[in-house]
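User: What would this chain look like folded?
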Amino acid sequence: MNRIAILVLGMHRSGTSALTWLIGRLGATLPADAIAPTPENPRGYWESTGLVAADDQLLRVARSSWFDPRPLDFSRLSPNALASRRRHIREALEHAFGTAPLFVVKDPRQCRFVPVVQHVLGEMHVEPRAVLMLRNMVDIAASIASRDGTTPAYAHLLCLRHMIDAEQGSRAMQRVVVDYDAMLADWRDTARRLAPLLGRDTDVFETGEAAEIDRFIDPSLRHHQHPRAALEEPLAGIIVEVEDGLRGLITSDDASARDRLDRAYARLEALPWLEGDVVHDELRHRRMASKAIEDATPPAEPTQKAKATVTNPPPPPAHDPSGDAALIRNSGLFDADWYRARYADVPADMDAVDHYLTIGAAEGRNPSPLFDTGYYARQMARRLAGQSGNTL
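Assistant: Here's the prediction, encoded as structure tokens.
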């Protein structure tokens, strides 16, 4: 293999965008179809629009998403279905990077399925190398909780799952572990540590090049640091053990350090009820938030048709040749009872999923407390805008 792909693996909101840009300045090719900057990230994401879409599709057919803390299980997919998703990922990589001998791939979703990406790159005769980006989980979780309205425990669990999967999945690769705060404080030291992955001597930078990096990566990128959330045990202890273990890899990525991490991971896996408790609390949190909105908003007047048929049982679901309705029903993200209670104008003689597909989604209605249709639509619009070269 004479081509190399640098995989940037880190949780959403952990500084992977700045790290990816830096790797690009050190000589790696950035994606040709990069998602356009947004007010949320004005310096750019440096993610391939096509690859993000392909990664989203892989998670979706596995009945998951980036917002899902459950372990991924690809055994539910047929060999043909998994091969199809791999093919789409390969096509996206080829479109984004062409025949570049050295390129950098960043999509936080890939933390969850590093072996799949490694398999695809192997088929392309590209050697994968990895960079793990670490940032204090409390800051990541606070950012996610603020943006998406999650409980602190749920945000921490999402972060744990991403980093556990990323660390375990990249063990067979040549890799470097870097720290976000350390990169902002001294990007030159981070660049020197990255040099073995890229085959570049980073001891000497042209004055203009170094000045450009100084302007891009500066301490102002560090947002407000948050106090550690008051998490309950055993989750709090597991997070501390995993974070300490990951940071230990910065200085010594050896068998002893990995064994230490495996012991921390085993604590989480030995407590299957813990994940269930966190998810239950998240559902309760979102239902309470939704209830507060309902209490403050007068319910919509039911339509005459709904009034006339409210006592009749709903008919069977509509014909579903596209499979979209089945996908929604099996996603775990549609709550028919919640949907009808939240939107009183849904006709009683119409299947709730059919209503969401034909009417509700277009109006920005949510299928459950765990899914924000408006936020999803905005993200997809940004990706499409980046793909076409326009901004919203």
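The longest strand covers residues 126-134. If you want, I can go into more detail on any region.
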